[in-house]
Predict the 3D structure of the following.
Amino acid sequence: MKVLAVDIGGTKIAAAVWDGALGEVHRTPTGSDPWGSVTTLLDPLKDGIEAIGVGCGGPMSWPAGEVSPLNIPAWRGFPLRSELAARYGVPVRLHNDAVCMTIGEHWQGGWGTEDLMGMVVSTGVGGGLVSGGRVLNGAGGNAGHVGHVVVEAGGPLCPCGARGCLEAIARGPAIVAWAAKRGCSATTGVELAALASQGNAVALQAFARAGRAIGIGVGNAAVLLDLEVVAIGGGISQVPSLWPTLRLSLRAHAQIDYLKDLRVEPAALGQEAGLIGAAALFVDPDRYWTGD
Ligand SMILES: [Zn+2]
């Protein structure tokens, strides 16, 4: 089946044709006119496609596919799914970008498990779940949103309104802000990661603190869902100083016997996981699509 796979984020949009394997990936900045960017990217790729699978930043109504991505202010309740169907004349399926990343990792990541959580740690903290070999959606498509598991009661305020969510501590901007308060000059996650690699103590502490929080959040999810694998992607996950405290904290907080073989590792597919998962919404719907 020939599926046009699309991955829409606040900074860039990626698209590729899946035809038994993922073809060349095309990218464009999201910009201030996201619909214009989407159509400019997709129009040249539309020939012969039978369906369009989309991963997009949330929140969204699912499966209706009306999107209000936090990082795309131009879209509030934008009917992305129906607009794409109307323009390209093919069926469209759409899910949260972190859910698509999770599906991609389960389908093509070679993990050898039917119980996996995918996580994206970057500007936000997102996630998705495959349980018993099938994607979990929850009542409104939000299952797996591990960024809003509370890891520190009474902790820092989260954009969702609660205190102490994993996202409020481990999202890139929160890590940078924590370090800045302690005199660190970095203004982006990339700058802070560079300082950490040079041995800057505050930068190292900032990532260690995020790693500790991620370990607690991962442990909470794993104990609830009896997970075998947690695959973590996103820019922040590539910072080495995050991982030692993540593993220590996980070991401390997830001690129950059935989690002794839990594997928590960097994601296998890199940036293409979301596109591969978006294609799977059509290529393997028995496992990955229960919407309409
Ligand atoms: Zn929250």
User: Anything to note?
Assistant: The chain is about 35% helix and 20% strand. The chain has a mean pLDDT of 96. The first helix runs from residue 34 to 42.
